[in-house]
Amino acid sequence: MTDTVLTVEQMRATERAAMEAGVSEWELMQRAGEGAAQWIMRVAAGRPVAVLCGPGNNGGDGYVIAETLIRRGYEVQVIAPLEPRSETAQQARAHYSGAVFAATTMREPVVIDCLFGYGLTRKVEGEFAELLEQMASSHCYKVAIDVPSAVESDTGSVLGPLPDYDLTLALGAWKQAHGLMPAMAAMGERRLVPIGLDLSGARSALSRRPRLTPPAPDAHKYRRGLLAVVAGAMPGAPLLAAEAAMRAGVGYVKLLSDHDHFGAPADLVIEQGKLANTLDDERIAAVLVGPGLGRDDSARERLAQAFSCRKPGVLDADALYLLDPELLAQADPGTLCVTPHEGELQKLCEVFGIGDGSKLERARRLHDVTGMTVLAKGPDTVLASDVMTSFFPRGSSWLSVAGTGDVLAGIVASRLAVHGNPHRACEEGVWLHHEAARLASPAFTASGLAHAVKPAMAALL
Ligand SMILES: NC(=O)C1=CN([C@@H]2O[C@H](COP(=O)(O)OP(=O)(O)OC[C@H]3O[C@@H](n4cnc5c(N)ncnc54)[C@H](OP(=O)(O)O)[C@@H]3O)[C@@H](O)[C@H]2O)[C@@H](O)CC1
Ligand SMILES: Nc1ncnc2c1ncn2[C@@H]1O[C@H](COP(=O)(O)OP(=O)(O)O)[C@@H](O)[C@H]1O
Ligand SMILES: [K+]
């Protein structure tokens, strides 16, 4: 799988396995460096290149890159504050035929950062920090090899100066930092350089843009899925979610609400009356509950009723504040998706006894403990389920406006009603949400975003 994401420990184990199978570290480094050089030649297009080389194997890659460029006629300068320490990096240094400077003014229009890769262990300081600062303030085209050098590969945290890169070339496999903030925002375009590692058996991946399908030739509204949106105290949020859901592929959306909803579209069916009765419909394929639900006893009662119909479901917003082990015992967690933002994730973790950790670790543990599919949303979104852990490209920052979470919940619920697969519904939901944000003009509001779900569907068909 080319989209595989590995931790540093998994990366080292995978490289060890390759070496045990007879591929030397030097061979892997040559594949990495030469593969990266192919991309660099495309962007440098003949212009002079500076390569910053660190003391480890990331620096080793840098010498291979530099030598490959020299052999293709490029003017290259290596800047290396320290001599290489690892044996393979020393081998790469010995094969490099060009000039090496301990420090110099960076004037080249293209600069390649090979100071540290996944071996970064502490804060970047001294001459290394100065080089990254110089790179940050220069107008050059900036390329990070494997990961930006001040970035911790497993967490995406930043341990030193972080230039705004134009291109990041992941070597062998993606690292978690390629899908996590704040690192992801500085990486520019991200591309993978395969080096022939065996990545089978990995359980984390960058999500691939999905291809959605039109309704089957014999479809009718119920076969396409009937989604019940359970409203509560506040009328606006479930209406927004329903508006988005109607455009995300489902055949029928019913809003189960006792509000009047003046101005609701004519094509949205609003059913009033006792929730136990309105939910008593075998044809319901999925239930969405949480947006606008409220947090009082009657809201808790509505959530329990939503569980009692034992349909696949999406829980968002207030449902995430009400959920606890007692309520969850009344549901079938394997069919449920939860879509928490950071605050909601924290609340869920408290209630289900999950300790501290990064967002990724907490989302993963929440899934392990509860069995629910966890879509932990935000500027970096991670999805944890029994299928795998998925990371996503960054969405538009215009999504940072009230109500866009309700829209996401509606889209995910719609996809769940279409096919009943929680992991797939969440992945499709994130891509549709991001695509809708791209297609809605900047400064959109949540209702504009809900309307843009229709062209987003068209773009993903
Ligand atoms: N293995 C393979 O098969 C392949 C690996 N590949 C490449 O190797 C990279 C990983 O290489 P790596 O493990 O040598 O680590 P790397 O990131 O170069 O840094 C380690 C060095 O930096 C030092 N150091 C750390 N932090 C520091 C700091 N803040 N300030 C100062 N020094 C610091 C650390 O020193 P120490 O902590 O031991 O004191 C050590 O000397 C990987 O990202 C990929 O590019 C590819 O070629 C494909 C094949
Ligand atoms: N800076 C950002 N970049 C990308 N996506 C964002 C950003 N800020 C928020 N989002 C997305 O917008 C949505 C906000 O959801 P949420 O916080 O639940 O808002 P609300 O409760 O107002 O509906 C989430 O899907 C989140 O991933
Ligand atoms: K690097």
Walkthrough of the structure:
The chain is an alpha/beta fold. The chain contains 15 helices and 19 strands. α2 crosses α3 and α6 crosses α13. 52% of the residues are buried. The model has no long low-confidence stretch (mean pLDDT 97). The structure holds ligand NPW, adenosine-5'-diphosphate and potassium ion. The site of potassium ion (K) has 11 residues, from β5 and β6. Potassium ion binds next to β5 and β6.
Summarize, please.
With 461 residues, this protein is α/β, with parallel strands linked by helices. The chain has helices at residues 8-20, 25-44, 57-71, 87-95, 126-137, 236-246, 275-278, 297-308, 318-322, 325-328, 342-351, 359-370, 404-419, 422-439, 446-460, and strands at 5-6, 49-53, 76-79, 100-101, 110-114, 141-145, 167-171, 174-175, 189-193, 204-206, 226-230, 252-256, 269-271, 284-289, 313-315, 336-338, 373-376, 382-384, 389-391.
Shape: elongated
**CATH level-four homologous superfamily name of the largest domain:** Ribokinase
Give the N-to-C terminal Cα separation: 23 Å
How much β-strand is present in the residues? 15-25%
According to CATH, what is the class of the largest domain?
Alpha Beta
**Helix percentage range:** 25-40%
Q: What do the pLDDT scores average to?
A: 97
